[in-house]
Amino acid sequence: MTSLLRILSSLFALLRSLRSMLSWRTSAGDPRAGELCDRAAAARAAGRADEARSLFEGALRAHPADGQAALIHYELGRLETERGRSAAALAHFKSAWHADRGFVPAAVALGDAQEDAGDLRGAVRTWERAAEAEPALALLGRLERVYRNGDRPRRMIALYRSACERAPDNLAVAVGLGRVYFELEMLDEAAEQFEKIEVRAPDMPIVHAFLGATFERRGETREAFEEYRRALRLARGFDWPHACVACGASGMAWEDRCPRCLRLNTLRPVPPA
Ligand SMILES: [Zn+2]
Description:
The protein has 273 residues and is an all-alpha fold. It folds into 3 domains: 42-134, Alpha Horseshoe (Serine Threonine Protein Phosphatase 5, Tetratricopeptide repeat), CATH 1.25.40.10; 165-238, Tetratricopeptide repeat domain (Serine Threonine Protein Phosphatase 5, Tetratricopeptide repeat), CATH 1.25.40.10; 240-273. It is built from 13 helices and 3 strands. The protein has helices at residues 2-28, 31-45, 49-61, 66-82, 86-99, 104-116, 120-133, 137-149, 153-166, 171-183, 187-200, 205-217, 221-234; strands at 242-244, 250-251, 267-269. It has a 3-stranded antiparallel sheet, with no helix packed on it. A hairpin with a 5-residue loop joins strand 1 (242-244) and strand 2 (250-251). The longest helix has 27 residues, at 2-28. It is globular and about 65 Å long. The structure holds zinc ion (ZN). Residues 244, 246-247, 249, 258, 260-261, 263, 266 line the site of zinc ion.
C-alpha cells in the first residue's frame, strides 16, 4: 500500500514537472519568432510594409508566446488597416485581443474596427469587457461617447463610478467622473468630486478650472474667479504654444533653443487655427 502511494505520488510529481515544462514552453515561445519580429519592425520603420507583413506572418508561424502573438496580430492588423483591408485587420485585432486580454491597444483597435464595420454593439461589448479588466481612458472615452449619443447619461456615470472603484488611485478616471457630473449639470456631485481630487492633487489646473466652472454655474462668482485664477496660474496661462520654424517641432512655451533640432532662436508663437 505504501509503495503504491509512493508510486502514485512520484507519478503526480512527474506530471507536475511535465506540465510546468509545457507551460514554460508556451509562455517563453520560440526565439525565432522574436528575431522575425525585430526584422519586421525594422522593415516597417523603413517603409517596406509588404516585407514587414510577411515577416510578421512568419513570426506567427514560428509559435510565439501568447503575449508576443498578441503584439504580432496587432501589428498585422495595423498593416492591413493601412492598405484598406478592414476585414483582415478586424480578424487580426480579434486574435490579438484573444491572445492577451490585458493588451489595451488591441481592445481599442478591435472595437474601432467593429464600429467601422457597422457593429456598434460588438464594439461596445469589446470596450466594456476590456474596461472591466483595465479602466484605460481610451476605452472609457469611447464608451462615454456611445452612451452620450444614445442619450444614456446614467450609463456614463456608472461607467466612471465603477472604474473609480476598481482603480481608486487613478486620478484621471476620477477627473472623468467629475467631468461627466458637470456635463450632466449635477453640480453638487461635480463640486464634491473635484474637491476630493483637489485634496490628493492640489496643483492640477484642470481640477481648478472645473471647480471654477462648477461654482460659476451655481452662481458663486467670487469662488469661481478664485478657482479660475488658480487654474491659470498653475497652467502657466500666460504662455502661448510655440513651434520651431526650422524643423516644425511644437512645444508649449517659448524656449531659447528648439528641443528637437537644437537650433537657437527658432521658436515662434503658433497662429490660431
Ligand atoms: Zn527645431
